[in-house]
């Protein structure tokens, strides 16, 4: 039995029951694929259910405001995915009358849709014989064929795509693509793969040559950048606080946060000399207390954030900037924030502030 048929047979016997596997609606398949990019199924499933319940159609998603979309996405990370999701929904709803492109080439033109996502949608929804190549697929192909070309190199991307095309099952493209991804997720796992009971172990090159643990090969990652965030949490009259929206093209664009001083070292006695904080406090009586002595380390793909929170209590404020908002404590959870701040808000505002 050839490679593709063995995988499909395995898949039909072992596949997990997922809501997106019970439909060929391109809207729902697209939604699931965007959510599952760089996200484990267990983490992505609740988000998929929330999105499909809140936005049953592409028109519902298109008509939402960005803050609503970002709030629902909160905790998934890589927030550009959410912004692209929203932009594409508006394009499909308004320019394409709610109808998704029905070819791989057409799907590639959608914002946020790359080779992998276009292949997945085209094969699952329209039975087009185009192969998916994601992390799971790279791992299966690299191990099975004993390929040592780095999967994140230009040469590797071309080599694995060419191989994937040659292996494509033209009779059952949807089942084959889902099979090889599921096989990589459940059977040919990154660590401790189930080689003993693998249906491909009699012809797997890495199993034969003892290289299962060293494949696939990846080029060294970029150097991790360290950043030092000092958040100033203002508690005004025991009922209000100030938040601001992040702008620019850096991390967390469009999300909200507390006033921020980015500096490796910070003198608690000089926090009020920062222009933004100085304008807010003016000459009002205030008290500054550090919330955490040791920084909270929040790890992103290419940077680690060393974060401290400083609590300032005061009865009144001076001037706030245009992108800042004075809000009631009770409304803070309605705003989309990074998970780092979401965790702080849960612990501090619920346990400390609300109990006062």
From TrEMBL:
Every copy of the HhH-GPD domain together lies at 35-186
Q: What molecular function terms (GO) are annotated for this protein? A: 4 iron, 4 sulfur cluster binding; 8-oxo-7,8-dihydroguanine DNA N-glycosylase activity; adenine/guanine mispair binding; metal ion binding; oxidized purine DNA binding; purine-specific mismatch base pair DNA N-glycosylase activity
Return the broad EC class.
hydrolase
Q: Which SMART domains match?
A: ENDO3c
Task: Output one GO BP term.
Answer: mismatch repair
Its Enzyme Commission number(s) read 3.2.2.31
Family the UniProt entry places it in? Belongs to the Nth/MutY family.
Q: What does this protein do?
A: Adenine glycosylase active on G-A mispairs. MutY also corrects error-prone DNA synthesis past GO lesions which are due to the oxidatively damaged form of guanine: 7,8-dihydro-8-oxoguanine (8-oxo-dGTP).
What this protein is called in its record is: Adenine DNA glycosylase
Which source organism? Answer: Aquimarina aggregata
| Classification lineage | Bacteria, Pseudomonadati, Bacteroidota, Flavobacteriia, Flavobacteriales
């Amino acid at each position: 039995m050839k490679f593709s048929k063995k995988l499909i047979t395995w898949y039909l016997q072992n596949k997990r029951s997922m809501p997106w596997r019970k439909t060929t609606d391109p809207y729902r398949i697209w939604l699931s694929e965007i959510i599952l990019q760089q996200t484990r199924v267990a983490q992505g499933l609740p988000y998929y259910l929330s999105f499909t319940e809140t936005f049953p159609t592409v028109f519902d998603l298109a008509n939402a405001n960005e803050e609503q979309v970002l709030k629902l996405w909160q905790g998934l990370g890589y927030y550009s995915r959410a912004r692209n999701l929203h932009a594409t929904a508006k394009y499909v709803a308004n320019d394409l009358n709610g109808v998704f492109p029905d070819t791989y080439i057409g799907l590639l033109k959608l914002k946020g849709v790359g080779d992998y996502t276009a292949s997945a949608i085209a094969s699952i929804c329209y039975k087009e014989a185009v192969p998916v190549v994601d992390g799971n697929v790279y791992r299966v192909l690299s191990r099975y064929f004993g390929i040592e070309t780095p999967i994140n190199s230009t040469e590797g991307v071309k080599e694995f795509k060419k191989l994937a095309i040659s292996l494509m099952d033209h009779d059952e493209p949807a089942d084959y693509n889902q099979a090889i991804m599921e096989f990589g997720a459940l059977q040919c796992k990154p660590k401790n793969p189930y080689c003993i009971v693998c249906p491909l172990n009699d012809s797997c090159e890495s199993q034969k040559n003892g290289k299962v643990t060293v494949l696939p090969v990846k080029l060294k990652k970029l150097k991790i950048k360290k950043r030092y965030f000092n958040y100033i949490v203002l508690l005004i009259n025991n009922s209000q606080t100030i938040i601001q929206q992040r702008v620019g093209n850096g991390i967390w664009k469009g999300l909200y946060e507390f006033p921020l001083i980015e500096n490796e070292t910070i003198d608690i006695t000089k926090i009020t000399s920062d222009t933004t904080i100085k304008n807010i406090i003016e000459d009002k009586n205030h008290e500054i207390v550090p919330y955490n002595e040791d920084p909270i380390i929040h790890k992103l793909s290419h940077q680690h954030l060393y974060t401290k929170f400083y609590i300032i209590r005061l009865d009144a404020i001076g001037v706030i900037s245009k992108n800042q908002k004075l809000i009631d404590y009770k409304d803070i959870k309605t705003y989309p924030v990074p998970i780092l701040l979401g965790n702080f808000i849960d612990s501090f505002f619920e346990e400390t502030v609300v109990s006062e």
